[in-house]
Predict the structure of Receptor-transporting protein 4-like isoform X1.
Amino acid sequence: MQVHHVPSSHKPGLLHLYRNPNNTLVCVGKLPSVKTLESLAMVHTPVATVPIPPTTEDTNEAMQASGRCIHEEHVRSMEAVWHGEFSKLFSQFYPHLWYLIPSPAAPSPRWYRFRDSAKVRFSCQQCGNGWTSMKGRVIFWYYLNPQGVPVPEGYLHFKLYGQQCKRCKNGRFEMAMWYPEEVVKVLGNVYNRVGQTYYGFYQPPLRQDRRPGKPRTQHNAELCQACKDGECTNAH
């Protein structure tokens, strides 16, 4: 994207907001790692290129643009973590082929189901409010088709549940930002469960540890998508 007069204060590797000639806020740069998303304080904002005193509208626009950029970058980073760990684990079921697919609901009643929890982080795209939760929820549905051609094929569908911002309460569920170690944990658990179902694993262990942390507020069921769907319990 073309940007008008990028200041010398621009630091490569961090997220910046500038105004282009159309007076629209744009993003330059990218976040260096998934862990950067843990704190909005690491987002660097240089001096505006247009010498106009900021207004409330400008501030809100900047916050929303920053939230969109962080959200888009996080989606790409999170996909890489999920697919990378999935490939490492489920390739061990070779020659059977397994596929990881996001899904809004159960594909079919005949599919097996597995539910897990993790510590996750959220960031509101509208106001920039950030919070952590020890009740991040993921549900997996899996099925191995023995008649796949040329080899049996397995499908692992999953749904990541969101939470609403307590400041905005706009009815939109923000996407959870998963820590890499939590992704490793839940994919390892569902890998063992699939192994028990189809490949003769004997009583595989399930990890229930979570990344340390103490959220500042208690869990609010009214703002939790998993609670609304009846999925925010401790059972697997």
